């Protein structure tokens, strides 16, 4: 286990996944802050921290559930025609539907953020909260909605890293715990940074489209799909890491250019 966690692939997956979990958690932080701000001043920090800790527990439980479904590798139905072969399994279905969900959710979020950026915030603001328990309940409901794409992202980033799926599960749990701790400690600075650089969140959502596509191809590969005798291969994770690293490097250069332009004015 320790040898796997210290391997290059595992460390790269952990860093990338933690980064994406934080980016995906920005909306969560915003909505938690809105819900907490409806409480008296002395209860706001408590509601935020309790909400995020319970959110972490909720995500870990979901990880175990999804990992159990991913473990269903044996095909229960085979589609066999003259030009198509698919061995349908529980694992393939979860990965395929998860990929479709990520692509749909990401494109919808990008469109919503471009056209009506405050739509979701307005909905949360409109809900009444009278007690700490009500605030925490609302925070958990909000987090459950955001947990789905977070969990599917974790599965996409770690699936296939090790033959023993429990190793990947431990890696996913570590990434979730680290990201939640960072969000608890740096919630306000992170939110301010994203407010100043909204392109980072759009970039994170764009990465989810890549991960969604990778989940779909992974589902086809694991179900041994062949179309006209052409099998679907797995996409190496290194391609995804390179795309994310390159995009972040370009975004970093863009930040530097914007800073320099503002300082010269």
Tell me the domain tally. 1
Percent of residues in helices comes to over 70%
Main sheet specs = 4 strands, antiparallel
Order of helices and strands: HHHEEHHHHHEEH
Indicate the radius of gyration in whole angstroms: 20 Å
Counting DSSP H or I runs of 4 or more residues, the number of helices is: 9
Task: State mean pLDDT (0 to 100 scale).
Answer: 78
Q: Could you tell me the number of beta strands?
A: 4
Percentage of residues in strands: under 5%
Low-confidence stretches: none
Given helix and strand content, the structural type is mainly alpha
Distance between the termini: 54 Å
Spatial arrangement of strands, main beta sheet = 1-2-3-4
Shape: globular
Subcellular location: Membrane
GO cellular component, one term: membrane
Membrane topology: Multi-pass membrane protein
Keywords: Membrane, Transmembrane, Transmembrane helix
């Amino acid at each position: 286990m320790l040898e796997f966690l210290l391997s290059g692939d595992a460390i790269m997956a952990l860093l990338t996944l933690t980064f994406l979990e934080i980016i995906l958690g920005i909306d969560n932080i915003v909505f938690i802050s809105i819900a907490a701000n409806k409480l008296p001043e002395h209860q706001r920090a408590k509601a935020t921290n309790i909400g995020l800790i319970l959110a972490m527990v909720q995500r870990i439980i979901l990880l175990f559930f999804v990992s159990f479904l991913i473990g269903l590798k044996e095909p229960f139905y085979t589609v066999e025609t003259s030009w198509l072969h698919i061995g349908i399994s529980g694992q393939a279905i979860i990965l395929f539907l998860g990929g479709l969900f990520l692509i749909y959710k990401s494109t919808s979020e990008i469109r919503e953020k471009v056209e009506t950026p405050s739509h979701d915030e307005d909905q949360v603001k409109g809900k009444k909260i009278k007690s700490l328990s009500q605030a925490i309940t609302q925070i958990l409901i909000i987090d459950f909605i955001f947990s789905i794409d977070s969990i599917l992202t974790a599965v996409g980033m770690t699936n296939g890293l090790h033959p023993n799926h429990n190793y990947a599960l431990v890696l996913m749990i570590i990434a979730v715990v680290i990201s939640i701790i960072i969000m608890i400690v740096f919630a306000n600075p992170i939110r301010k940074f994203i407010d100043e650089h909204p392109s980072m969140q759009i970039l994170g959502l764009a990465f989810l489209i890549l991960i969604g596509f990778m989940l779909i191809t992974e589902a086809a590969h694991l179900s041994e799909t062949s179309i006209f005798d052409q099998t679907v291969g797995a996409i190496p994770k290194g391609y995804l890491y390179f795309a994310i690293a390159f995009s972040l490097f370009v975004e970093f250069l863009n930040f530097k250019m914007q800073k320099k332009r503002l300082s010269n004015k």
